[in-house]
Amino acid sequence: MERAIEGYENALIVYTQTDFPVDWAMTQNNLASAYSNRIRGDRAQNLERAIEGYENALIVRTQTDFPIECLQTSRNLGNLGFTQGNWQLAISAYQTAVTAVETSRSWATNDDRRQEIIAQAIDVYERLIQAFVKLGQIDKAIEYTERSRSRRLVDLMASNDLYSDGEIPLLVQQYLQQFQQLQQQIDAERNSYGSDNEAESRTVSSSTRSNREALEQYSEIIQQLEAQKQIIWAKIRQLDPILAGEIKVDAPDLATMQKLIDRPDTAILNFYSTDEDTYIFILFANRPPQLHICQGQGQATLQNWIFENWLVPYVENRAEWAAKLSSLLNELSQYLQIETLIAQHLAGIEELIIIPHLYLHQIPFAALPINYCYPTATSVNLDLSTVTYLGDKYRIRYIPSCQILKYCQDRSPVFLSDRGTVEDADDTLVGARIEGEKIAQMLAISPEYRLVGKRQATVSNYRQVVRQVNLLHSSHHASSNLLKPLESQLLLADGRITLGELMTPAWRFPKLVDVFLSCCETNLGLTKITDDILTLATGFLCAGARSVCSTLWTANDIASAIFSLFYYQFQQQNYSRTQSLQQAQIKLRNLTGIELQEIYQREFVAQYQQTYKDLRQAKANRDREMAGTDAYLQAEEKYQQLSMMYHKSAEFKKALDLLGERAHPFAHPDYWSVFIISGLS
């Protein structure tokens, strides 16, 4: 170390600031690092020399001229101050580093590089937030949590809002057309081979050689087409004014965040996990923010626990995960100190806006218990009627960041005059079919805005309807892709709508206000360190929706249908979205097996019997035709469709009978807490 210091000092004789400013700054930085690690001599003097060297280097390594080098040196200086408990020095240096990061990010012209820049400097944001907390500057800590999270999603929303008038540059239109054509080719490949589930269920060991070769070829073609699609996506994004640096998107300050709270009984809970702890910043409309610290529950503990005990088990064995769900929620409630949080900070509050961090995005906060009555609850048959949940006490909605909430609020108000539904797109979801019929009756939805079954719920019809309505209720299959989030998809009769499509300018719907995604996994996503939650739900927020109701996991067909009906019943009583969600969850949870049998089973049995009559008639119609003729083939197609629906109805009836035998069939959180609201209340 001594020889290194001597060498750097000798180099500075030649590398002067005037003649060789870049080399001089580099040497000053290296000399400072050597002094900060020096063992010999007086420690205080060594640190003073280190600080002096870093500050000298920053004379040349400025945020605008050399942002990468500025980040390196200011991070070194900040770390020095942080380890010494010199919080003011740490804050000053880290603020310089953050400005350098954001300058460097603004120069990057693709999304991936922008994400890398934030990810590589996330420790700077984290330590800066910690330093502000140490000095009691909660307002500044909150502002920097906002600057560190969901930046990609913010860019996408800002970009799409630029196209609200529908005017898209010609070159972007051409790329969008290519993007859509590639998706159509992917859909055609999948349809020609069979459904995704069929393809995945064909194991190599049970296939013939030709089947193995066909599957390999199928997979290779799909991968090639998806790779081409990603290239087109990157080209579209590179033409974006935000990425091109023509428009700068600034994070809001605390005063702007507080203005987003439109009621005095509403609070924002802003979660942020450092390595050691999890901070819960509480923002109010008209009083200073507060901070609750869950000590010892940081990324290494709490966030890792959620990943290992929540996400991994859900992916590997959903049934086992569901059986342990109540105990997991109970444990998580204790880790987050929910009862203490309520007692110390939430007096007079009735609505919570949750801004999760990292894996907390996957948690149904409404189902966190606030009395610990079942520490070992692991069965769906347990009596959970004595449990009080966070959702009983508060109306709850989610938002990825305050800036995204501001985008939702700033959109022009639209009267809910036109409503539409997309129902049971592949003729396999009996509950979705009943759900759609009842909602259409309840909301007086015009037949032209109803897409029912395989014949109507096509991709092109979906695109047309979503452009025309203010409220869209989608009840069909969907799936989340945790590894490739832009490939998460809505599954329709003849193809798919991916998240990547939803986030392009082609999917910009300024008239769209409410979206209810009564589909599986529409808000399930694997967040990286940059905390961008890319899901189908956030895709619709990008597309223009003000509010989205979505699901955190695979939803039960029967429970989803009944929950949706309850939700719209409360909406018709002029309840807000979050009130409707809260009351629908409570009503579903308290529904008895007897009520299920008396009300819903009676209605279903009538439909079941009608399906059987239709099936018999379809068979008779087919048998009257000559085999092999066009008329026979058409009648056969109708018969097969009704036959599948009848068998699905039989399965649905059996499940309904079993649920009806329980005292409270939907009391378990797996059924009622899967739905959340994002966006406006």
Automatic annotation (TrEMBL):
For this protein, the record's Gene3D superfamilies field holds:
Tetratricopeptide repeat domain
List the InterPro entries: CHAT_dom, TPR-like_helical_dom_sf
Per the UniProt record, one Pfam family is CHAT
Task: State the coiled-coil residue ranges.
Answer: none
Q: Which residues form the CHAT domain?
A: 330-679
- Determine the domain of life of the protein's source: Bacteria
| Name this protein carries in UniProt | CHAT domain-containing protein
Q: What is the lineage of its organism?
A: Bacteria, Bacillati, Cyanobacteriota, Cyanophyceae, Synechococcales
